[in-house]
Structure formats: C-alpha cells, structure tokens
Amino acid sequence: MTVDRGRVEAAVAELLAAIGEDSTRPGLVDTPRRVAEAYGEYFAGVGVDAVEILRAGKDAAAADERGELVLIRDLEFRSMCEHHLLPFRGVAHVAYVPNEKLVGLGRIASVVETLAARPQLQERLTEQIADAMEAGLAPLGVLVVLDAQHDCVAARGPRQIRSTTVTVASRGALTDPLARAEAMVLIGAVE
Predict the structure, then answer these.
(1) Same domain for 22 and 89?
(2) pLDDT, tens digit, for every residue of 63-76?
(3) Which residue from 4, 90, 133, 172 could staple onto 141, CB 3.0 to 4.6 Å apart?
C-alpha cells in the first residue's frame, strides 16, 4: 500500500492550523509536502509481506553448510510508535539455527526494515520478526533482541533521554535457557 501523500499533506496543514500556526507562512509552506514524503518512507512497510522476503532465499542447504547458529548483530532500524507517532530507533540482533533453508543475510536486514516501517510497538515488532523468520525459513530456532530509544519517552512525559527498551522473542531450540544464554553472550561479545 502506498501512502496517500495528498491526504497526509492536507492533514498536516490542518494539524498546523489546530496548534495555532499558519501553514502558509514561509517557514511552514513546504512542511506538509515534506512530512508526506517522510511518511512515505516511515510507513513503506505497510501491506508488505516480510515472509516473502525470506522465501526467496537459498533452499536445501547441505548439512555442512548449515552450521549451528547464524547471528546478525546491530541491524539498525527506526520505526514509528503507534501511540504518539513519534520515532523509536535502535538495533536488532537476529539469530537462527538453520534447518533446511539458508537465506542471504541482507534479507534478514530487509525483514527488520520492512516490519519496522509501519506504525508499530517494539514488543510487537520483536514478535513479528521472530514469526517471519520462523514462517519464512522453518529454522530449528529463532532469537530476536531489539534495543531501542523511544522519543515518546525521551521528548515528552518522563523525558528520559538515555533510557532504552530491550525486548526479546524466541522460538524453537532457542527457547532453551542454555541455548538462549549462549546466543545472548554472542550478541554482547566485543569484537
């Protein structure tokens, strides 16, 4: 689904009027268009099936190709909190234990980006990434850890500018406390 930029522009002009601003003054005249363009990026993942991104990966890996654990650390993402339409940004760490399917590492980053590019809650985003990995790859296990800063916490209300929120989702073999702990140590490992 494509963002209706005309409607966004009209809504932003109305919002500016509602807060007592003049959307036609020189500093604001292009703001509705700019916000509409930004929303086209922020919400590009609405209606996109993240599982399809994974299904295009390499099938039927030989046993010696699979390895024990695939972990991608520090995938940067940004999303938009659905409660206040303020950004949150952070890093995703995604691990899976391959079964019969491997996928290019860039596809995992694309899954994170696609699912983050919609009105979102961090807790749900974490679960959606794990669910997409499970549905798209049928791995033996999945672990997803997100660590993010929320502008709704930093810029308003409690104004905690250094706080982060960590969420975790695990599936299959990586729900085992020992296996999950090993993956968590690898996530935190220093180069």
Answers:
(1) no
(2) 566 679 999 999 99
(3) 172
